[in-house]
Structures
1.
Amino acid sequence: MDSCACAALASRDYDVAALHVSYGQRTEDRERRAFVAICDRLGIRDRLVVRNEALRAIGGSALTDERIAVPTTPSANSEVPVTYVPFRNAHFLSVAVSWAEVLGAVRIYIGAVEPDSSGYPDCRPAYYEAFNRVIKAGTREGNIEVVTPLIAMRKAEIVQLGLELGAPFDLTWSCYSHQDQACGVCDSCVLRLRAFAAAGVTDPIPYATQARVLEI
Ligand SMILES: [Zn+2]
């Protein structure tokens, strides 16, 4: 939902090219279908779909290693959760920067969110500030910038923003563990359901169960 709101925001202001990366995550087929549907709805024709073989081969995350269970509650402490995929966003951004250089694009939007979110270290503002210095030093023109318009927003605010922009939340996929119907109990589903509840809006996708959220 963060990526979708971010794509809707970028589409409002710019001619957008969209990147999707499959990296061996449990729900990669469903996420790729969501990407195609969202691009269709937003009218984004220029698309790049790539596969990253490294992240699954490396493992170390509940999303890419079947031996590590997806937790059913968001982490309540400040520890990095097991759903963190080690340094994943750097892989995504590196592909995006390479493509941007070829396209002549100067802005890369990413829907990273820090407050009331998963607690991933590659969603911190300082990380993107540092990455922008890497881009400046390592590209031909040095004029490409990663922007993170959602990074300081709470999830409920992202729901509101997306609704204002007409972001197609009905086409999005957030569940970490299932591809047929969103489970409603993994940490990603719970964060999403909390966000819609806090915004006072019904999430447009169906869930297998929402028991966990009703307990909160
Ligand atoms: Zn789920």
Note: DSSP finds eight helices and four strands in the chain.
2.
Amino acid sequence: MAMNFDQNIFLNNLAQTTENPYLIAIEKAEGVYLYGPDGKRYIDMISGIGVSSIGHRHPKVVEAIRQQLDKHLHVMVYGEFIQHTPNALAQKLVSLLPSTLNCCYFVNSGTEANEGALKLAKRYTGRTEIVSFRKSYHGSTHGSLSVSGNEIKQRAFRPLLPDVRFIEFNNPEDLKHITHRTACVIAETIQGDAGVRIPDKAYMKALRKRCDETGALLILDEIQCGMGRTGTFFAFEQFDIVPDILTIGKAFGGGLPIGAFISDKRIMQCLTYDPPLGHITTFGGNPVCCASALATLNVIEEENLLATVEEKGKLIESLLTHPAIKEIRRTGLMFAIDFESAELVNKIVEEAKKRGVICYWFLSHPYSFRIAPPLTIAQDQIKESCEVILQAIDSSVKS
Ligand SMILES: Cc1ncc(COP(=O)(O)O)c(C=O)c1O
């Protein structure tokens, strides 16, 4: 079959999420590289937005998927049949987590993981109020949108979930709004789409303490910042706290769609009775996605990828020196790079694209672009892409 990169079909027969999509055609992807049908090569400095953390088509991931394809695809809805691959994935994931995060519920995406987590917290506590943070992003379905602190995105879709209260991230004063009415607090450990906002350790400990005092469950959303992006498997490890419920997605699947919410079995079992089938999914824990996720966790460990994240992050930070850069916020290999205007950011992202490096915007922070390269990126690839980004900044500032 002839390849179909027809732009008209893309623009008219596929739904659009913006009026100005990125619009590059991709024929294949390998490691940190994307390739167009015309042979043009791009360095992927955003990993499909935090997904391809071990690079595109890692051979061990591809092999694990192949092996699963030869055994079985979907055989039953989530939670009924005992299947080797979801079992093995749950065992591996739990082995990487603190002992109170011992029960995994696999779903199909990040937003679905948060939906499940919110329902679980309401069901477990018998309370209704949810506390979230201004500028947070937790997904696009109704529940996740309801707890995403973005008035512009919410306005068009009201009514949303009732009883959601927004407080300021990293502001200890606001913790008093978490009370005995609160079912849960949902927070990104590192706020991603707000432009990489890194909270203080003392604040995160105070947040944990306040949840303990009031009986509110703490949900940490590590859909973007988990899976080694910040240099530890999970970002919460750096704050000396453990959430009651952890949500993951994106890089977890190594390029296939899978998410999870994870808690203590004691909490999770609420979803099995009164009512039974309190949360269900047809495709959650799909065996092919689980095979890909398991291989991805193994690769992160076997290739000792976490050990190099900080050093690579520092290298990028040191190379990206330019008078037009106002601020760089970074944790591990997760960057926000601020400029004086959204217009300049747009020009730079477009220029970098023309020159073969993919950078990207944030949802809620127009004055920055993001960088989140595969953790597997090599030093020479870092140097090459940073040089291109600096050229893109230079030419955008002058134009
Ligand atoms: C922190 C966070 N939570 C949730 C989501 C939603 O994940 P998904 O797009 O897989 O539904 C995202 C996606 O960007 C995210 O960054």
Note: The pocket of pyridoxal-5'-phosphate is lined by residues 109-111, 114, 137-139, 188, 192-193, 221, 223-224, 249 (CB under 6 Å).
